[in-house]
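In this section we walk through a basic example: taking a raw amino acid sequence and producing a predicted 3D structure, encoded as discrete structure tokens. The instruction is simple. Fold the sequence below.
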Amino acid sequence: MKLRALTAGTASVALLLAAGCGGGSEGETVTGADGQELDQVTLTLNWYPYGEHAPFYYGVEQGIFEEHGISLEVRAGQGSQKTVQATAAGQTDFGWADTPALLSGVSQGLDVKSIGVYLQTTPSSVQFFAEQGVESPDDLKGKTVASTAGDALTDVFPLFLEANGLSDEDVRVQNTDAAGKMAAVMSGQTDALLGYATDQGPTMQEESGKEVSYLRWAENGLNFFSNGLLTAQDVLDDRGDLAQRMVAATTEAWEQAAEDREAAVEAMEGSSEQLPSKQVLTEQFDETLELLHTEATEGERPGVNTAEDWEQTIGIFADAGVIEEAGEPSEYWVDNVAPAAQE
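The resulting token sequence is shown next.
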């Protein structure tokens, strides 16, 4: 992958694979351009960079992380599950991953915690070309949907069907790898796919030249937490101040990127050989900014969570069998690093 040279040379962004890319940066520091000592910090994403990740690149470029004493290195990921595992193993200081993967990891004994979910409305959706004429969940009857066995969307899809009066028999799920779902729809092998409205849809629309439509789960009876920050318990125990600064910087980056969207997207230029076009990145980021709150957190700063919303998410994934039983929110999430309230 390409490495992106950044201003001032003090806060580098590198795109490396989560697997085999070395460990975190515990205790390592560098000196910034102004002489400030900065903690070297690694963040592994849930996937290769796409529009959702713009605030991190913007935050580095604008010096937001430096203001909090952090020299941030952003790494591409290979799926939320691997990001959770890498975080637990100390291969990265922080992760950006889907909450269902975190729940699953904790239930399997991984010693990681969420330090704030930022995408609190799920972007999960059924995606299809508008020409399919699907306008409601009931229109999925008899359709074939591409999915990936073992991922959270596949596990929870039966609950989405149930919430809309459908059964597993009403829709045929065709398993494929994550990268093959778009190809399955564009080639006509399947009628639709399960994915994020902030990810595949804009890309599929640009590549095919055909309009893509969505059945968004959050608008059809099923909402739960999506992506957020996580770290290992060791980091919380030994470097709690760093975790607080990372959350504060991330929240500021999201707030400022939302006010400067064009610059946020431009900050991603050159970050990956697989980076979508600027148009797709813009659509992805715009969609993502609609997901930052639930009714309970409306008006709060990004990253502020409530125990009630956590309980709802935990319950959904216990019902789906992703976790064996619903634990208390404190088993998965720490709330003492939440960003400060707006002044």
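Looking at the output, two observations stand out. Residues 1-21 have pLDDT under 50 and may be disordered. Residues 202 and 280 are 6 Å apart (CA to CA). In the next section we compare this with other chains.
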